[in-house]
Amino acid sequence: MSETTTALVTGANKGIGYEIAAGLGSLGYRVGVGARDETRRETAVGKLRAAGVDAFGVPLDVTDDRSVTDAAELIERLAGRLDALVNNAGISGEMDPGWVQDPTVLDLEVLRTVVDTNVMGVVRVTNAMLPLLRRSASPRIVNVSSSVGSLTRQADPDIEIGPVMAAYAPSKSFLNAVTVQYARQFAGTDILINAVCPGLVATDFTGFHGPRTPEQGASTAIRLATLPDGGPTGSFFEDDGVVPW
Questions:
Q1: Closest of 47, 89, 56 to residue 74, by C-alpha
Q2: Half-sphere exposure of 91 toward its Cβ, with a 13 Å CA cutoff?
Q3: How many other C-beta atoms can be found within 10 angstroms of the C-beta atom of residue 213?
Q4: C-alpha 173 chain-centroid distance
Q5: d(CA 200, CA 196)
Q6: d(CA 207, CA 128)
Q7: What is the residue-wise DSSP string for the chain?
Q8: Marked catalytic residue, from 18, 29, 168, 182
Q9: For 46-68, how does the pLDDT look when each residue is reduced to its tens digit (9 = 90+)?
Q10: At residue 2, does pLDDT exceed 70?
Q11: Phi, psi dihedrals of residue 158, rounded to the nearest 5°
Q12: CA distance 114 to 119
């Protein structure tokens, strides 16, 4: 089994996911670039390798059982274990102008699609990778969430949390709740799992609207993916500290 630390980042072909992969690579991790689109995936791998990162492509559709199983088998062949999993892949779902998802007219198919990627996809990938993570001395799991998933912030009229997003925001609340359940299940083990909010980052996901760069958005996820033993688990973080549930 290789002594090289290995990470898998889902949705790593661009934006925040790419920068998480780049950051982990700069710390010496061998990084699996998980992405559905072959061309974008291999382009990202090429850029990372040109920057000195030991990167490899992982064909991965988080909504597809066979794809996820194949990804786990690929990582087992190439690395034998997994030291860090960053569940970054996510979608917003269809939005009305102004990034609004009105719950009173919400298409249930939109909700199903968002939850399938943002929640079920995370469970699907995490469970498939668990046998590999358990072979690591210090396994780390990071779920990329959003502060819009904070029920405390959403319910506070004095906090500006953005438009109503009746599919995307609840999917992140759901993801946060799932993260806590994993942490409870992992209690007493070496596996640390946390959720992270990257902030409002200027990527194609946000229409390149936002004050933060992808590098800035990736920073806390990288920190959580490389936590020392005994670090926090079952928590929700942003750059400034803990985000309230």
A1: 56
A2: 16
A3: 15
A4: 14
A5: 12
A6: 32
A7: ---S-EEEEETTTSHHHHHHHHHHHHTT-EEEEEES-HHHHHHHHHHHHHTT--EEEEE--TT-HHHHHHHHHHHHHHTSS-SEEEE--------BTTTBB-GGG--HHHHHHHHIIIIIHHHHHHHHHHHHHTTSSS-EEEEE--GGG-HHHHH-TTS---S-BTTHHHHHHHHHHHHHHHHHHTTTSS-EEEEE---SB-SGGGTT-SSB-HHHHHHHHHHHHTPPTT---S-EEETTEEPP-
A8: 168
A9: 999 999 999 999 999 999 999 99
A10: no
A11: -90, 0
A12: 8
Mean pLDDT of the chain: 94
How far is it, in rounded angstroms, from Cα 112 to Cα 92? Answer: 12
Q: Tokens at residue 106, please? A: 């919400």
User: CA 187, CA 210: separation in Å to the nearest integer?
Assistant: 37
CA atoms of 34 and 62, how far apart (whole Å): 9
Tokens 């946060």, residue? 176
Q: What are phi and psi of 10, to 5 degrees?
A: -85, 150
pLDDT tens column, 81-113:
999 999 999 999 999 988 899 999 999 999 999
Number of residues that make up the chain:
245
Tokens of 84: 């860090």
Whether 182 is catalytic: no
Looking at residue 213, its pLDDT comes to 84
What pLDDT score does 1 carry?
Answer: 41
Burial classification of residue 47, based on how many CB atoms lie within 10 Å of its CB (0-12 exposed, 13-18 middle, 19 or more buried): middle
Task: Give the position of tokens 């970054």.
Answer: 88
Spatial separation of the C-alpha atoms in residues 140 and 231, rounded to whole Å: 10
